[in-house]
Specification:
Chain lengths: 302, 276, 433
């Protein structure tokens, strides 16, 4: 359908974005890769290299080239596997909850009822809140085991309030992140639902199709493409969840890979190690994306 | 969309929808209510819903301490600026990928998404150093550029998805009617794409408004948006829930209001009246 | 027409020249969002009236965010700030690197409390001026102690604290004998545990920089802490920091609270339900010669390479001067004066009326950052080790100890893990050959 003219025009049209993103990607990425091969501590930028790695090469600013030691140090950190596992757990759970929850909510919002505008904004609102604000609100006013609202509800029914961050840190983080992302999935799926052919709906009703079959054979296939988009976009964001873990102080037990990189970079000021960690995180994310595309990528074609 | 739904069914759905809606909205509602309490009331159990001394003192304290308007204006400028520039280069790209796809379009899309895979903190120092050397630290232009680049992949993806939903037959029909490429774009494509563009635009404003890592790292005072405003209320010594609630309400209110007015755009995709 | 124009032009030029003559220097000040700093922001009219050519711009952030921003900026030479608020941890490290400008205009430097000033001096030069100083002490409920039939001595031992805590605990009534920090962080639970470990005779590193978590003293510390919290501590302690414990104490749920001396003004203030029932005592010890209290001062410093040295020096000296103290006392009362910096403050009879003043001073004076431990050590710092690597190592160890408190590992497992982690990082940093 695309003529030669449109194809060239197409390439031209795409090029500004490609150029911009290329710059954005290449410049910091190459610097990060470079730093990952240096011994670079922010508080000690020019360590006396001869003491640390005898015979080490120096770069232009007198920093030691460290070979792969940053990488091996990051990978042999006992916290590394835990962080990687947490990263994947977080993504997996939130995806499951937001796709399932998003579908159900979208179906609900697609119905006719009174006060749709109000309910819609209420359901979308969590996504509009800043992640830091959301984390602070959940941590202090909802989940605090002494004065939080959830604690109150538990005490009301005579149960011991749960100390979320001490005993169920991962669960708490999953709850907080899902709360924010279910609306996003709902929005995308609702948009798609509303474009479902009106004629098909009426035909199904007239035929007396049971609602479950209607859902399974007509609605669901229509939703596969937006679900794919939701999964892809959310995975990218969820792999880098940071604010919730940082604010709630669950980095020790529910910390994911970005949090570990943060610990290296901004707490220990080990820029070399943090850069290596960042590169490792990128590689892992690419692997995840590769498998994801393999599994659901075909759904993106018209 | 007129369907004859029984009143009874409508009421049942209404009850269910409102219950779920309130449940989801509750933490935000609770924050807004708490912002009108004194600090002592804020941590009191059992929690007070309506019958307490409503006070505006928290808002007063927050306003005295921090220049809310400056932060809010910065947030607005950053959100609108980055969205505008992103759309300018994203719309042509998404159009090209949706209607003139090459062999590598899918790969290109995945590559664009992959630029978001680096945990931001890993690239902090390189970006910081670049910004320092170019004098971009604490400038609105610098942050607008960063926000634009951060969200560009998402925008292109969303637009691509919406554009792909536009049936090719419409464009073919218009071409057969003798319309040139330019006319095709302007009179046929754009009206159908407006809902998709609108909701992408709104989504990006939200994402830019809420971005908390780069806005904190690269701004100090001149370009500091509301994310930094919140960071000064997050955990000082002493009781702070009520003040935090007031600051939070002030920080999220503009976006909530925007969401309320724009919700139709946010949920409306494309209507397929045109195909018939 | 012409004379009018010339006149207007002349006036314009004059105004332009005049305004460049009184060119405004804008100081960007980075501070923490604690009560005393916020109070200072409200009182800056006093400074700007006396210095009309200087305007102040504040960047107020939460402690951790502030530290990260300031560290990144000063290390990468971003030049974003003119005056910094930093702690006694950063000052020795940054001072040695030459990142700070020695202060020249501080009001009566000899008046500064020696323990605090010592921590802020590098090579004989004062690198930062203390804004407020703190140590830690025991805050206890006089009524609950009476009910348990005990009297708190001015200088209790850990054994007594353990006994008193268990006696005051009444879990069904939600009264917990002692509330202590458990939240993971080098400035959170590790501040408390490191300070406490000093009084148990433990140390972070020996003279060869080998971590000491495998030694009996640290085991004694951790065992004591964990069993005390299990018997007499509140639920969820492993995520409790200063604010959480403050809320617990103020709502009457703690029999004792060992934490920063600045908490004293909060627990006796209007937001406390037990304000009139609070007593104070020195941090406990084990009779080994060191008590379990810490030493910290939030101080104002000027980054090297700043263009605005004169204005910055003026500001720093104003904010840490005796005059400022009097200003606060006049406007908000003596109890709200920034504590812990000057001998003259504690010699002042007005200030002596504040119930916690004496105990605060005694606590500060009993901490010596240059000799924090019973056994010799190669470092300075009471509840921290003034080396750059400490923040990272102590964060990891803090996470390990916090999860032990949450019941996820035993004390021995935690100590072994801490030892491995610390040794690993110290080897990488080159301290251990």
């Amino acid at each position: 359908m695309a003529t030669q003219q449109t194809r060239t025009l197409g390439k031209l049209a795409v090029s500004p974005s490609v150029f911009a993103l290329l710059m954005w990607m290449i410049v910091p990425l190459s610097m990060t890769i470079y730093f990952s091969f240096l011994r670079y501590n922010l508080l000690d930028p020019n360590p006396i290299c001869s003491l640390l790695t005898p015979g080490a090469l120096l770069d232009a600013e007198n920093r030691c080239l460290a070979g792969f030691t940053n990488y091996s140090y990051f990978l042999t950190d006992p916290a590394f596997f835990k962080a990687m596992g947490n990263s994947l757990k977080l993504v997996g759970w939130v995806l499951a909850i937001s796709v399932a929850g998003g579908t159900l909510l979208a179906l609900l919002l697609d119905q006719a009822f009174y006060g749709r505008g109000f309910v819609r904004i209420m359901m979308i609102a969590p996504f509009l809140v800043m992640p830091t604000v959301s984390a602070l609100v959940w941590k202090n006013m909802m989940m605090n085991p002494v004065s939080g609202f959830l604690a109150y509800l538990f005490k009301l029914v005579g149960l011991q309030p749960i100390d979320w961050f001490a005993h169920f840190p991962m669960t708490a983080v999953v709850i907080m992140v899902s709360w924010q992302w279910v609306p996003f999935a709902t929005l995308i799926l609702l948009t798609s639902l509303q474009s479902l052919d009106e004629e098909q709906k009426e035909a199904a009703e007239m035929d007396g199709t049971p609602p479950l079959s209607y859902f399974w054979y007509i609605v669901l296939p229509h939703l596969i493409r937006p679900m794919t988009v939701v999964i892809l976009i959310q995975t990218i964001f969820l792999l880098n969840v940071f604010a919730e873990i940082y604010v709630t102080g669950t980095g020790g037990r529910a910390g994911n890979l970005p949090f570990l990189v943060y610990q290296y970079g901004l707490i220990a000021n080990d820029i070399g190690g943090a850069s290596a960690g960042g590169i490792i995180a990128v590689i892992l994310a690419n692997i995840v994306a590769f498998f994801l595309m393999r599994m659901i990528g075909k759904n993106l074609d018209a | 969309m007129a369907r004859n739904v029984s009143i009874r069914r409508k009421l049942v759905v209404t009850a269910l929808a409102w219950a779920i809606g309130l449940l989801i909205f509750f933490p935000i509602l609770w924050t807004i209510i708490t912002s009108f309490k004194t600090e002592g009331d804020a941590i009191a159990l059992p929690p007070k819903f309506l019958f307490f001394d409503w006070t505006l003192e928290n808002y007063g304290i927050v306003q005295e301490r921090s220049d809310y308007l400056k932060f809010a204006m910065n947030s607005v400028m950053l959100a609108l600026g980055s969205t505008f520039f992103a759309l300018v280069i994203a719309i042509p790209s998404a159009w090209a990928m949706a209607f003139a796809p090459g062999k590598r379009t899918k790969d290109l899309l995945m590559w664009m998404l992959s630029t978001k895979m680096m945990p931001p903190v890993g690239a902090l120092i390189p970006i910081y150093l670049i910004f320092r050397d170019f004098g971009l630290l604490d400038t609105r232009g610098g942050i607008i550029t960063v926000l634009m680049l951060l969200n560009l992949p998402i925008i292109i993806w969303m637009l691509y998805t919406y554009f792909k939903e536009i049936p090719g037959e419409i464009l073919e029909a218009s071409r057969m009617d003798g319309a040139s490429l330019g006319k095709e774009l302007l009179y046929v494509l754009t009206p159908m794409a407006i809902p998709g563009i609108a909701s992408t635009l709104l989504l990006n404003i939200i994402l830019a408004w809420n971005e908390a890592f780069w806005t904190l790292a690269l701004t100090t005072k001149d370009a500091a948006p509301l994310t930094q405003f919140i960071a000064s209320y997050s955990s000082p010594e002493g009781l702070f829930w009520a003040k935090l609630s007031a600051a939070s309400t002030m920080a999220i209110a503009p976006i909530l209001v925007l969401g309320w007015f724009a919700q139709k755009q946010l949920v409306r995709g494309l209507t397929f009246g045109a195909v018939k | 027409m012409k004379p009018v124009l010339t006149g207007v032009f002349g006036a314009f030029m004059f105004a332009a020249l005049a305004s460049t003559a009184i060119a405004e220097t804008k100081l960007t000040i980075a501070t923490v969002n604690n009560g005393d700093m916020i109070r200072m922001q409200g009182l800056t009219d006093d400074f700007t009236k006396a210095n009309p050519d200087i305007s102040l711009e504040w960047v107020t952030l939460e402690e951790n965010v502030l530290r990260e921003k300031v560290t990144t900026d000063i290390a990468a030479k971003g030049g974003q700030f003119d005056v910094l608020t930093i702690g006694t941890y950063e000052v020795p490290i940054w001072g040695k690197k030459g990142w700070l400008v020695p202060l020249t205009e501080v009001d009566d430097p000899a008046d500064l409390l020696p323990a605090i000033a010592g921590g802020l001096t590098v090579d004989g030069k004062l690198m930062a001026a203390p804004f407020y100083g703190e140590s830690s002490m025991v805050m206890y409920r006089k009524d609950l102690m009476e009910k348990a039939g005990l009297t708190m001595p001015d200088a209790p031992t850990w054994e007594f604290i353990g006994q008193a805590a268990r006696a005051m605990t009444d879990k069904p009534a939600e009264v917990y004998g002692v509330c202590l920090r458990g939240k993971a962080g080098w400035g959170e639970n590790m501040a408390f545990l490191t300070a406490a470990s000093n009084s148990f005779g433990a140390r972070w590193f020996d003279e060869n920089w080998k971590p000491q978590f495998d030694q009996p003293e640290w085991k004694a510390t951790l065992d004591f802490y964990l069993s005390l919290m299990a018997d007499a501590g509140p639920p969820g302690a492993s995520s409790n920091g200063f604010n959480e414990n403050l809320a617990l104490f103020n709502s009457g749920k703690c029999g004792m609270w060992i934490d920063a001396t600045v908490a004293a003004s909060f627990v006796t203030g209007k937001e406390s339900t037990v304000a009139d029932k609070v007593g104070f005592a020195l941090a406990p010890d084990n009779g080994l010669g060191k008590r379990g209290n810490w030493l910290w001062a939030w101080s104002l410093a000027i980054p090297a390479g700043t263009q605005k040295n004169d204005a910055a020096q003026k500001f720093v000296s104003w904010a840490t001067s005796k005059h400022y103290t009097e200003l606060v006392a006049e406007k908000e009362g003596w109890a709200n004066v920034p504590p812990g910096t000057r001998t003259s403050l504690y010699a002042n009879p007005e200030y002596a009326k504040v119930p916690f003043a004496k105990m605060t001073l005694d606590s500060i004076n009993s901490a010596d950052p240059t000799k924090p431990t019973v056994k010799p050590v190669p470092y300075v710092g009471v509840q921290f080790v003034a080396i750059p690597e400490f923040a990272g190592i102590a964060t990891t160890v803090g996470q390990i100890f916090s999860s032990a408190l949450a019941g996820e590992k035993t004390a021995d497992e935690a100590l072994a893990e801490a030892q491995t982690a610390a040794t690993r990082e110290m080897t990488r940093a080159g301290y251990i050959k």
